[in-house]
Every structure is written in C-alpha cells, then in structure tokens.
Amino acid sequence: MEYDTLTKLNDNLPFADHHDLYHVIDSLPFGDVPWQCFIVAYDSKRLADKDSPWMDGKYEVWFCDPHEVVHNMLTNLTYANKMDYCSYREY
Prior knowledge:
The protein has helices at about 5-10, 20-25, 65-75; strands at about 35-40, 60-65. With about 90 residues, it is an alpha+beta fold. The longest helix is centred in the first third of the chain and has 9 residues, at about 5-10.
C-alpha cells in the first residue's frame, strides 16, 4: 500500500486502538459469553541449531466458548428469518 492510501484509511478507522475494539466487542448486546484464557508453551524436543526465542515463552490464548456464542446467535430473534439451515455445496 502506498502512503496516501494508508493516510486516508487512518482518517476513517472504526476503532481508536485495540482497547476500543475490545470495548466494542464486550459491549455487544447479543449475549454475555465470558472470555476465557489458557496458557500455551512449546514443550517438544529442541534441536540446537533450530532454537528460537519464542520457544522459551509462555503465551495467553483468549477466547469465548464457541458453543455459547453460536447458541446466542441461534436464539437471537434478529436472525430468526435470515438463516438457511439447509446444507449446500459450492463448486
């Protein structure tokens, strides 16, 4: 992308920063599915010539229970007549 395009996009960004994005997500009125977190770390065999600094770190993975999210979507009257439950194949 060119600088002009980036400058134009920056003037119309939907969120000020990641905190603003998270606030918008958390304030959606379609069900209160809590955030959950787990920690992951690399624990496989290491090869001396292949080690990378990321292998030493621990990382948080944040998510909302997908079953609860889909349940809230399916019970939301906003989508009552807008879902097609028939399977189809797109070629």
